[in-house]
Amino acid sequence: MTVTTRIDARFKALAAEGRAGLVTFITGGDPDYDASLEILKALPKAGADIIEVGVPFTDAMADGPPIQASSLRALAAGQSLEKTIAMVRAFRKDDNETPIVLMGYYNPIYIYGVEKFLKDAKEAGVDGLIVVDLPPEEDEELCIPAMKAGVNFIRLATPTTDDKRLPAVLKNTSGFVYYVSIAGVSGAAAPQTSNVIDAVARIKRHTNLPIAVGFGLKTPEHARAIAEGADAAVVGSALVEAVRTSLDDKQRATPKTVKAVTDLVSALAEGVRSARRKAAE
Amino acid sequence: MNDRVNSLRTGPDERGHFGIFGGRFVAETLMPLVLDLEKAYEEAKKDPAFKKEMDYHLKHFVGRPSPLYFAERLTAHFGGAKIYFKREDLNHTGAHKVNNVLGQIMLARRMKKPRVIAETGAGMHGVATATLCAKFGIKCVVFMGSVDVARQEPNVLRMRALGAEVRPVESGSKTLKDAMNEALRDWVTNVHDTFYCIGTVAGPHPYPAMVRDFQCVIGEETKAQMMEAEGRLPDALVACIGGGSNAMGLFHPFLDDRDVAIYGVEAAGHGLDKQHAASLAGGKPGVLHGNRTYLLMNGDGQIEEAHSISAGLDYPGIGPEHSWLHEIGRVKYLSATDDEALEAFQLCSRLEGIIPALEPSHALAKLGQLASGKPKDHLIVVNMSGRGDKDLASVASYINKKMSA
């Protein structure tokens, strides 16, 4: 089933511009619903091409300390999957073009109910899903229902996904492929750029989908280096760290919070846009 | 054929499912590792040399078979059923955990992995892993919640004496669930050289089935020993459940013996209406740590903190095969509170001269209900899954607190 989504349209536009995209991750509801929505609304103008909104979970097994802490801040402030969907709905009132991808773990979705979740998320304006603990072996759970509902299910490919396994990983993927550039948790050490370029080339031999690269990218320099080989660079932990360092001693938002994030996003966007693309389409 | 069709011992299916439970809910980075492990385990199972080596170490290093012991004074105390203990507390390292760890460490050697990681709650699985890593010269790192590090200090000292590195985990509730998260994060980071030795019948397939298989020695020996002692199978089995590996090891060989009643005992903590660790009694099906199973959580699917006086039962989930056995009704799951377990701890120590761990004290706590009023020839086996030396400090402080309250 081929449904053109905001994600497809955005990558087409980026290709026409001849540049890579910037994918930014924030945790929905961090540090609280209102501040988080304000950050979300400010991201496109700051230079985000695609936005991942993290659905907070108590047990973020694939994430490093920054995103774990960010999830716990959001949960402490009362965030839930329902409120995260509501945030997207509120965002869509002013922006009908920037793709939004929900990223998280399966349990909150499973408990919400897969069918109801897909219906509500789609109606709210969610374009894609990244669910860390649903490998292809569990496609019947959410991936296939999402495809049927016209929501992109974006799969992670990793350094341990070899050529033999790649076709299975890519089979039901749509929107883009998220290449996890290191074997490790989010926000860990930055990857070796040359390894990443090789890996992206390897995946490109198996698919025509755009490839975004993330995990470990923190600075505009990282983003630029990755943007020279990939279709998009993903930055997450560095942005939730920008949120954290802007908070007061009671972990509440301050007047600096939104700007702390948008300043970093602007710098990252500049990095991405200055990349000389090696892998021209 | 009919026997196989009706058997409850054929699970899981090839995708690791027991009914709707189980599965392989892990990040892509780990998926190839989980598939490698499954392949290595399937090969090892078919290799007579693997079984031979395992049997050798079980006998000479672990000290198996463990006795099936007639608990005479406890039997007289309840005045009903005849009570036997399966003495897993007499294994080297003091608990049933070593049965599984031996199997996994032998697999790690076959797979040529020089580094082993483990999560631990009460510390018994950590001690068993540290012990076998010392014996076979493998580097060992154990993740343990910082709350558990404090309440199970003797085991921390044992692990360190055995040359293992103990990493206290400060995230989340700082107990077993968080130790497992941290072990998974380590595995995702060290994919090439590390074997993850899971301590219970949970996690992604093949762990629940593999750990069960390694623990089934408990039930198989019990069958043979009971035939020798009484000339027939027992009427009932009782075991405590955290993740549920000691229970599954005792229960599984008896699942098709439908006349044998089987009871699992969850930790009811402060009470089922307060904070507890009874996933079946107070939870619902969800997905965590690689499998679908009963979990304690809120309405948004956020995992709740469990509570039990016993660090080994202080986990908000349960092995997926137990969830299945619960739903089909083959095993009846009960629960015991902290107070009930402590009372049983003291009773068993004084009447039998056996200081039980707080974990099997939960199973002992249900003997009043399961043994009293039964005929004298009603045979009950309690899995004495570990010894209580590690718990003396927690028990003393709990009793002092109660007395001064």
Please explain how this structure is put together.
The complex is a heterodimer of chains A (281) and B (405). Helix content of chain A is 46%, strand content 13%. Chain A is an alpha/beta fold and 281 residues long. Chain A has one domain (6-273): TIM Barrel. In chain A, β8 (211-214), α10 (220-227) and β9 (232-235) form a beta-alpha-beta unit. In chain A, α4 runs parallel beside α6. Chain A starts with 5 loop residues before the first helix and ends in an 8-residue tail after the last helix. The relative contact order of chain A is 0.18. Chain B has 405 residues and is an alpha/beta fold. Chain B has two domains: 16-59 and 97-211, Rossmann fold (3-Layer(aba) Sandwich), CATH 3.40.50; 66-94 and 215-404, Rossmann fold, CATH 3.40.50. Chain B contains 18 helices and 14 strands. The chains are: A alpha/beta (281), B alpha/beta (405).
Q: How confident overall, as mean pLDDT of chain A? A: 95
Overall tally of structural domains of chain B: 2
Choose one word for the global shape of chain B. Answer: globular
**CATH arch. level architecture of the largest domain in chain B:** 3-Layer(aba) Sandwich
Q: Characterize the main sheet of chain B.
A: 6 strands, mixed
Strand content of chain B: 15-25%
Helix/strand/pairing category of chain A: alpha/beta
Biggest interface and its residues per chain?
A-B, 43 and 36 residues
According to DSSP, the number of beta strands of chain B is: 14
Strand order of the largest sheet of chain A: 5-4-3-2-1-9-8-7-6
Estimate the strand proportion of chain A: 5-15%
CATH topology of the largest domain in chain B: Rossmann fold
Question: Roughly how many Å apart are the termini of chain B?
Answer: 61 Å
Oligomer: heterodimer
Indicate the percent of residues in helices of chain A: 40-55%
**Tally of helical runs of chain A:** 12
The overall strand count of chain A is 9
Tell me the Rg of chain B in angstroms. Answer: 20 Å
Mean pLDDT of chain B: 96
- Strands side by side in the biggest sheet of chain B: 3-4-14-9-10-13
CATH homologous superfamily (4th level) name of chain A: Aldolase class I
